[in-house]
Amino acid sequence: GPTPEIADHPIGGELATPIPEVDQGRVLALSDLDDDGVPDLLAWTNSTSSRLQAFRGADWQLLWQQPLEGGETPAQVVRTEDADNRLAVLYDSGLLAYHDPASGQMLRSAMLRPASGGSPCLSQCRLGYVMHGPRSGMFVYSLIDGPIAGIDRSLRGASQSTQDNSLSAFGLAVTDRGS
Q1: Once rounded to an integer, what is the mean pLDDT over residues 35-62?
Q2: Range with the poorest average pLDDT among 21-25, 26-30, 78-82
Q3: Helices and strands, number each (H, E), in the chain
Q4: CB within 8 A of 35, min separation 6: which ones?
Q5: Beta bridge partner(s), residue 64
Q6: Phi-psi domain of 81 (left: phi exceeds 0; alpha: psi -120 through 50; beta: other)
Q7: Cα angle 69-71-74, degrees, rounded to a multiple of 5
Q8: End-to-end distance of the chain based on CA atoms, in angstroms?
Q9: Rounded CA gap, 39 and 36, in Å?
């Protein structure tokens, strides 16, 4: 079959080794997990049990795999791209967790709920990260076409919700760039 291409791969062009197939799962993100300058592959598989897997981008060898409690299913992955460059995984249940990029171990987590107090994510949510400073920021979370909620990057304390879906409630400056 065709060899996948990754545009920002340092070598450029085609990869020498095909990306590993993920059996009964999904590719979540390309992110440099081992700090070698090459994007690594983060995937979820449910072939024998629910787990995160990371493959080294240089040769697609398995870096680590981490079993997920209760059969959690990841929906989205975000790197904070701040001084700590945390690896945050949002699960379909609404759980937001930090994982150690080097080992996959879950370090801290918080349960997010939409402002309506409603149902879990079920792949119908969006997660973003807004950096306020080198070590401060907020995760902003919403169901598609639903209310917006946010939680401090420490994942401590309750998530905040907005009644009018205004991002200004999270300390975000929203400017109109129209003429």
Answers
A1: 90
A2: 21-25
A3: 0, 12
A4: none
A5: 54
A6: left
A7: 95
A8: 50
A9: 8
Over 90: is that where the pLDDT of 61 sits? yes
What is the Cα–Cα distance from 160 to 43, expressed in whole angstroms?
A: 30
Backbone angles phi and psi of 168, in degrees to 5 = -65, -20
- Supply φ then ψ for residue 126, to 5 degrees: -130, 140
CB neighbours of 96 closer than 8 A, spacing ≥ 6? 88, 89, 90, 109, 110, 111, 112, 127, 139, 141, 151, 155
Q: What is the pLDDT of residue 71?
A: 77
pLDDT band for position 57 (cuts 50, 70, 90): very high
Chain centroid to Cα 124, Å, comes to 14
Q: How many angstroms separate the CA atoms of 19 and 26, rounded?
A: 13
Task: Sort strands 148-152 and 136-143 into parallel, antiparallel or unpaired.
Answer: antiparallel
Distance from C-alpha of 170 to C-alpha of 55, rounded to nearest angstrom: 35
pLDDT score for 143: 67
